[in-house]
TrEMBL record:
Gene3D superfamilies: Biosynthetic peptidoglycan transglycosylase-like, DD-peptidase/beta-lactamase superfamily. Residues 73-260 form the Glycosyl transferase family domain. It comes from Sinomonas terricola. It comes from the Bacteria. This is Transglycosylase domain-containing protein. Residues 541-650 form the Penicillin-binding protein transpeptidase domain. Keywords: Carboxypeptidase, Glycosyltransferase, Hydrolase, Multifunctional enzyme, Protease, Transferase. InterPro entries: Beta-lactam/transpept-like, Glyco_trans_51, Glycosyltr_51/Transpeptidase, Lysozyme-like_dom_sf, PBP_transglycosylase, PCN-bd_Tpept. It catalyses: Preferential cleavage: (Ac)2-L-Lys-D-Ala-|-D-Ala. Also transpeptidation of peptidyl-alanyl moieties that are N-acyl substituents of D-alanine; [GlcNAc-(1->4)-Mur2Ac(oyl-L-Ala-gamma-D-Glu-L-Lys-D-Ala-D-Ala)](n)-di-trans,octa-cis-undecaprenyl diphosphate + beta-D-GlcNAc-(1->4)-Mur2Ac(oyl-L-Ala-gamma-D-Glu-L-Lys-D-Ala-D-Ala)-di-trans,octa-cis-undecaprenyl diphosphate = [GlcNAc-(1->4)-Mur2Ac(oyl-L-Ala-gamma-D-Glu-L-Lys-D-Ala-D-Ala)](n+1)-di-trans,octa-cis-undecaprenyl diphosphate + di-trans,octa-cis-undecaprenyl diphosphate + H(+).
């Protein structure tokens, strides 16, 4: 008798609720626990409240996967908050459409958005103590849209999905569901629901769920697979087949029961499907640059370019949400034909690498600035193939890389690969490469009369003034080079005293700064500020410069004086295919005079045929030649811990680096070390970075212009007779 009295009381309230709904012209009902149903009227028991609820649903596209693509359209990485791939209704198996309707809303094709019969049935079940829901698929879709709208505004997805609903929330969903049914067909609503619904933290929507749990497309789901996925939406964690396989099987078979009961399958189909084991074939989504299919660190660089660009949102969070939620297509400049050989080469250069030497290769295209490849011998996560794991990007400025200010990304000391900056200043003053300078001079005291109009030159080289802050007398690597020699020879043999004699012979020392600025040289750790060339030690490479910057400097020589800012993003499209951004080439023609660039190239060609680059040898001791016109310069810092070769053809400019990329270069000397099983008394730019560059360039030079360089004017080679 007590149960009957309780039931009558609840039904009385329910009838009153239906009456209020009828006044508003819409039949709705609220399904709660019995106690909540008794108290609904105090807060919501008026037709004016229901009338005040919104009847139009703002449907924003649900969170989608952003894809980063290489220049040929191949995938680099996916980026998302929610792994979702929308598909049309005809790309979904009939099995899954039937299964979801059978278990979630078998009267879906009969009601108008709210199922009053189902509400009454569920209410009676709840009174008996059996918790049962009555939300239709349309209502569930509305609820998911409202959740997605909150997520799109930056709300935490887990909090949104797990939030508790009030009776008012339920009434709102009901009214919106009824209005939605007047706008869209049942098939459209069902497709939208299956594309938005949450199956797992790894899968939103039916296509992602199919791929994650079974590695198949939604259109190919078998009956038992479809039944399992349909069962998941009621409790993704409870019925997770990975964590709780027994629960998942029980739920799947319950779905099969419902499908048979409502005529979607026959007894034989039911029996066969119910006997089928789970047979999961998991394909976990790989989200983010750490799981990039190719070019992890290039991916990270591109992502930083987007997240730091106000064109993609007013705030950093806006930009992050746009990437993570909006299903962008980021088309990059990366050329996989270069990236694969670059990665293979840096991985092989240092081998197992117990001493954590860093290697990298980065290539830009002269005349456009497009970054074509970017590779280094590390991985972002353990277990990805190498024992050297770091998030730091060796190739780029600190502001363009993961990590912090403690070291790593942000450039390394380029050593003598900086010498072409002074050569550029010399040529810009109209001075010829074959002019002789006094490379025997080793002392440049604190009071040396440098001719400079823009800044006070800092530093000195003088044994007698070391106590006053000077460095010791200038040193060359070998003793036989303290003699007069042409500027050209001083560059291709990389003679320090010849470089200083060249600087001393300038009409204005400040032309070195002007050359550096024209070539785009900037401090890799200084937020992009120009490299300050007023310190004498920086003529020999004391600054920290990123490999990408060095590749771009040398690309200016390759393109006859046109400097191009490096670019990595060809185009960014939204989910509808509309272009919303990208980077166009940003180039300065005649950044240095074409004749100056041609003459510099003419000198740097000698580096590879008779200068320091002649020591680029294979394991058998033979000099490695590309077999096409090429030019380059080696570089080594004073500790032999930062070594370089930057070289180019007409179509490719590549910086090759080997050294201490993460720590203090003074603490990890490149002397008396084993690298890849070979003992090195001392490391030089030609020894490891050089072959790395040569082997890589041999594989890729044929893909881009590798014709002859333009000849320089004779006046920049030999001084006119009589002068």
């Amino acid at each position: 008798m007590a149960i009957l009295a309780s039931t009558a009381k609840v039904l009385g309230k329910f009838v009153a609720f239906l009456a209020v709904s009828a006044v508003s012209g819409v039949l709705v009902a609220g399904l709660m626990m019995p106690a909540a149903a008794v108290t609904w009227g105090a807060a919501y028991g008026s037709s004016s409240f229901f009338d005040s609820l919104p009847s139009e649903l703002t449907i924003n596209p649900p969170g989608q996967v952003t894809k980063m693509l290489a220049a040929d359209g191949s995938l680099i990485a996916t980026l998302f908050n929610e792994n979702r791939t929308p598909v049309s209704i005809d790309q979904m198996s009939p099995n899954v459409k039937n299964a979801i309707v059978a278990i979630e809303d078998y009267r879906f094709f009969e009601h108008g958005g709210v199922d009053t019969t189902g509400i009454l049935r569920a209410l009676l079940a709840n009174v008996r103590g059996d918790r049962q829901g009555a939300s239709t698929i349309t209502q569930q879709y509305v609820a998911n849209v409202l959740k997605e709208n909150l997520v799109a505004q930056g709300a935490d997805a887990s909090n949104v999905l797990n939030g508790q609903k009030t009776i008012g929330d339920k009434l709102r969903e009901m009214k919106l569901a009824i209005a939605l049914e007047k706008q869209y067909s049942k098939e459209q609503i069902l497709a939208s629901y299956l594309n938005i619904v949450f199956f797992s933290t790894n899968a939103y929507g039916i296509e992602a769920a199919s791929q994650y749990f079974f590695s198949v497309s939604a259109k190919d789901l078998t009956l038992p697979q479809a039944a399992l996925l349909a069962g998941l939406v009621n409790g993704p964690s409870v019925y997770d087949p990975v964590a709780h396989p027994d629960n998942a099987l029980t739920r799947r078979n319950l779905v099969l029961d419902a499908m048979q009961q409502h005529g979607y399958i026959d007894q034989k189909q039911h029996e066969d499907a119910a006997k089928t084991p789970l047979q999961l074939k998991l394909s976990p989504p790989r989200q983010g640059c750490a799981y990039a299919v190719q070019a992890q660190y290039f991916c990270d660089y591109v992502l930083h370019q987007v997240l730091n660009d106000p064109a993609y949102g007013a705030t950093a969070n806006d930009r992050l949400q746009r990437v993570a939620q909006n299903g962008l297509i980021i088309k990059t400049t990366l050329d996989p034909r270069l990236q694969a050989p670059a990665q293979a080469q840096v991985d092989s250069t240092a081998g197992a690498n117990p001493d954590k030497w860093g290697t990298s290769l980065v290539t830009v295209q002269p005349g456009t600035g497009k970054i074509l490849s970017m590779a280094q011998n590390t991985r972002m996560l353990p277990g990805q193939g190498l024992n050297f794991v770091t998030s730091y990007n060796f190739n780029v400025d600190r502001t363009d890389a993961q990590g912090n200010d403690l070291g790593g990304a942000g450039g390394m000391q380029p050593g003598s690969s900086m010498k072409p900056i002074t050569l550029t200043a010399w040529l810009s003053e109209g001075k010829p490469t074959n002019q002789v300078v006094d490379a025997s001079k080793r002392v440049y005291p604190l009071n040396y009369p440098w001719r400079d109009t823009c800044a006070h030159v800092v530093g000195a080289y003088d044994d007698a003034e070391v106590g006053r802050g000077a460095a010791p007398n200038l040193q060359n690597d070998e003793p036989g080079w303290y003699r007069p020699m042409p500027v050209r020879e001083g560059i291709y043999q990389s003679i320090n005293t010849a470089l200083f004699a060249t600087a001393a012979g300038l009409n204005d020392f400040c032309d070195i700064q002007r050359a550096a600025d024209a070539l785009g040289l900037h401090d890799g750790a200084g937020g992009g500020k120009p490299a300050d060339m007023s310190t004498l030690g920086d003529l020999l490479g004391g600054l920290n410069i990123a490999p990408l910057t060095m590749a771009s400097v040398y690309a200016t020589f390759a393109s006859n004086g046109t400097y191009c800012t490096p670019i990595s993003i060809a185009e960014v499209d939204d989910a509808q295919g509309q272009k919303i951004g990208g980077q166009s080439p940003s180039c300065r023609a005649n950044s240095i005079r074409p004749d100056v660039a041609k003459a510099a190239t003419n000198v740097l060609q000698d580096v590879l045929t008779k200068g320091s680059g002649y020591n680029i040898k294979d394991d058998a001791g033979h000099t490695i030649y590309l077999g096409v016109p090429d030019a380059a310069k080696t570089g080594t810092n004073q500790f032999n811990s930062e070594t370089w070769l930057i070289g180019y053809t007409r179509g490719l400019s590549t910086a090759s680096y080997f050294g201490e990329a993460l720590g203090n270069p003074e603490d990890h000397l490149g002397r008396n070390v084993f690298v890849n099983g070979r003992f090195w008394p001392v490391i030089d730019g030609a020894y490891i970075a050089g072959p790395q560059w040569a082997y890589y360039m041999q594989k890729v030079i044929g893909l881009y212009d590798h014709g002859n360089f333009d000849p320089p004017p004779p006046s920049l080679i030999d001084a006119p007779k009589g002068k």
